[in-house]
Amino acid sequence: MEVLCVLYPLLLGYDVLFQDVDVVWLTPDRDPLQFFQDESSKLSRFDVIFQHDGANSIRYAPYSANSGFYYARANKKTQYLFTSLLYHSDLIMTWDSHQQVLVQLLSEHSSLFGLNVKKY
Q1: Which residue, among 39, 38, 32, 68, has the nearest Cα to 51 in the 3D structure?
Q2: Distances in Å between the alpha carbon of 120 and those of 66, 86, 100?
Q3: Through-space distance between the first and last CA atoms of the chain, rounded to whole angstroms
Q4: Measuring CA to CA, which residue among 105, 64, 49, 97 is closest to residue 81?
Q5: Which residues contact 38 (CB under 8 A, 6 or more apart)?
Q6: pTM (whole model) above 0.85
Q7: How far apart are CA 36 and CA 65, in angstroms?
Q8: Mean pLDDT by 10 residues, the chain (120 residues)
């Protein structure tokens, strides 16, 4: 399950850049993590950064976050987010949508726990 592939490194203190296999980097000679880890960037204040999915349906509102490409910083907020996602595995299986459950949890954790979410 892809939730564990993200959760375990976060729990060990590693930031995670998750991407589906159909994502190809145009500049393979550059480390993509430098873009996300640049402390002088405005992105450094976000706990999770998601690619916008392009689907503007109510099902994925308000973030329309693409669960196939995102960056998560290793901190207590993201560890709790992905632990919660693991605990909601029954919904992932029932709805057949990892994305829908994740987007709902993003809203909840942003509101209740101050998770800083960026859609790009």
Answers
A1: 68
A2: 10, 24, 18
A3: 25
A4: 105
A5: 44
A6: yes
A7: 17
A8: 92 94 76 83 90 67 76 97 96 87 92 91
